[in-house]
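Question (not urgent): is this output format expected?
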Amino acid sequence: MSTDTSAPALSEALAALRPMTLAEINSRAALVTRTCRKYLVPVTFADSLFAGAEERFGVLTIGGQQVFRYSSTYLDTPDLRTFHDHRRGRRVRFKARVRTYVDTGTRMFEVKLKGARGVTDKTRIEYEGPTDRLTPLTRRFLDDTLLGYGMEPPDVLTASAVTDYRRATVVSFSGEERVTVDTDLVGYRNGWSVGMRPDMVLLEVKTRGGLTSTERRLHQHGFREVGFSKYGATVSVLEPRLRGNRWHRAMASCLDHQTPTTVPQARAGVVLSV
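Got this back:
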C-alpha cells in the first residue's frame, strides 16, 4: 500500500515531500515528552496544508509507503477508570494500550501519561504477546511506570476497545513539530463499530513548545484545537449508558452512525462488555 485510496489528494501532497526514515525522524523530532493538540479538518484542506511545503517538511517513508495501518487495543479497568479520568479532564491520568503496526507486524505495549501541566509522556516496550490482556512482562512494565510517576497501579486491566486507522507522519526539518495525519478511523466495542467520515482527517500536532507554524495556518483558516480521543469517542458512542460530553462536538462533526461489526471473532473477542 503506497497511498491511502480514501484520500488520494492528500497522498499526492505527501508524495511531494522528501522521504524520511524512522531513524531520521526520531533524531529530529522524537517528542516522546510533548504537548499534543488535535484538529479535525476536511481532507481537501489537509492537502493544501502540506502543498508546497517541500522545503520545510519530510514524510515518514518505509519501503516506498507513506501511509500505514495501525491497530490499538486499549486496556482499562472493569469500571473504565482511564476512560472516566479522561472524560472528566483529570489533570494526572494514564492510558494503556497494545499498538500493532499492521504493515510490519511490530507490536508495542504503551503507557501514555498526562501530567499536571498538560504534557504527555509516552513510554513503551516492544511486545510479542496477546493484545487483549496483561502478561507478567507488561504488568511489571505498567506497575514500574505508574509508580515512578507517583500513581497507584490498578489491580485489573482488560481489553475495552479497539481502534483501527491509517496514518501518515509529517515532520518539520527544524524538529519543531511532528504532525500525524489519520484517516479511515474505525472503533470497535461490544460487537459494534463506528467509523470516521471519509471526507475528514484527524491531525495531531506534537511539539515541545507553543503554537507551531502548521497550527498558525490552521488558525488562519478558522480551525481550532478540538477535544477528541479515539478511545474516548469509541466507548462513548458504542456504550449507550456512558456519556462523552467532553468529545460530543468533535464526535458529531466527524463520526458516522454505529453499525454491527463484522470483525473476525479473533478481533471481536477482545472488545469486551463491562
